[in-house]
């Protein structure tokens, strides 16, 4: 029988795997650090415009909070962030279905474009659990960035999307006019 002496040194294979794992993960660690510092700076400059709670038959669905750089709402434009804090579990398919229904209220409704946006949302949004937050930030380039639990989860670069998405809550044709009034009414004098 052949006996193999145990080595006090790790095998070259293990060393190779550890080295590759370190160098492969290093760029992601740098990107995560840079991303969080960008997000923290963005968060620090945002001020609450207003907030409102959506209820359906007495059940709380979510609380909506609108933020802007100056704490005021003038129009749907870059620099706005809408954050929803959910008070119940909701599957992403239900969120997307409701989003599609709300988009039908928009002027110049384009069914093909809206379906394309819904497909993108399906790839970005998670299922929601009670107390989760989902936020949309319309950046200076017109790109809509999504955040789940304050972490970036994806973006949609179509400039029309951001306006259409925020219009669900902020347009005069919204299905929830009372909520709109509460979230656009500036908390800041």
Structure description:
The chain is α+β, with helices and mostly antiparallel strands and 189 residues long. Helices cover 42% and strands 23% of the residues. It has a six-stranded antiparallel sheet, with helices on both faces. Helix 2 runs antiparallel to helix 3. It is globular. The N terminus is likely disordered.
Shape: globular
Q: What percentage of amino acids are in beta strands?
A: 15-25%
Q: Largest sheet, described in full?
A: 6 strands, antiparallel
Q: Tell me the helix content.
A: 40-55%
Q: What is the total tally of β strands?
A: 6
Structural class call reads alpha+beta
* Rg estimate, integer Å: 22 Å
Q: Helix tally?
A: 5
- Strand order across the biggest sheet? 1-2-3-4-5-6
- Sequence of secondary-structure elements: HEEEHHEEEHH
Topology:
Layout lengths: L11 H34 L1 E10 L2 E10 L12 E6 L5 H12 L7 H14 L8 E6 L5 E5 L2 E6 L2 H12 L6 H8 L5
Antiparallel strand pairs: 1-2, 2-3, 3-4, 4-5, 5-6
Helix pairs in contact: 2-3
Give a quick precis of the structure.
This protein is of the alpha+beta class. A six-stranded antiparallel β-sheet has the order 1-2-3-4-5-6, sandwiched between helices. Helix 2 runs antiparallel to helix 3 (111-124).
Task: Output the keywords.
alpha+beta, 23% strand, disordered N terminus, 6-stranded antiparallel β-sheet, single chain, 189 residues
């Amino acid at each position: 029988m052949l006996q193999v002496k145990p080595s006090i040194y790790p095998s070259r294979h293990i060393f190779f795997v550890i080295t590759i794992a370190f160098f492969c993960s290093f760029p992601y660690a740098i990107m995560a650090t840079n991303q969080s510092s960008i997000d923290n700076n963005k968060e620090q400059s945002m001020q609450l415009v207003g907030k409102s709670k959506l209820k359906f038959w007495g059940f709380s669905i979510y609380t909506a909070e609108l933020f802007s750089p100056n704490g005021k709402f003038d129009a749907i434009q870059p620099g706005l962030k809408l954050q929803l804090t959910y008070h119940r579990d909701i599957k992403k398919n239900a969120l997307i279905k409701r989003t599609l229904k709300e988009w039908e209220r928009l002027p110049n409704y384009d069914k093909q474009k809206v379906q394309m946006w819904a497909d993108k949302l399906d790839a970005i949004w998670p299922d929601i659990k009670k107390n989760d937050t989902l936020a949309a930030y319309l950046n200076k380039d017109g790109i809509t960035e999504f955040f789940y639990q304050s972490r970036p989860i994806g973006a949609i670069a179509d400039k029309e999307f951001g306006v259409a998405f925020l219009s669900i809550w902020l347009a005069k044709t919204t299905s929830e006019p009372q909520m709109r009034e509460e979230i656009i009414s500036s908390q800041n004098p």
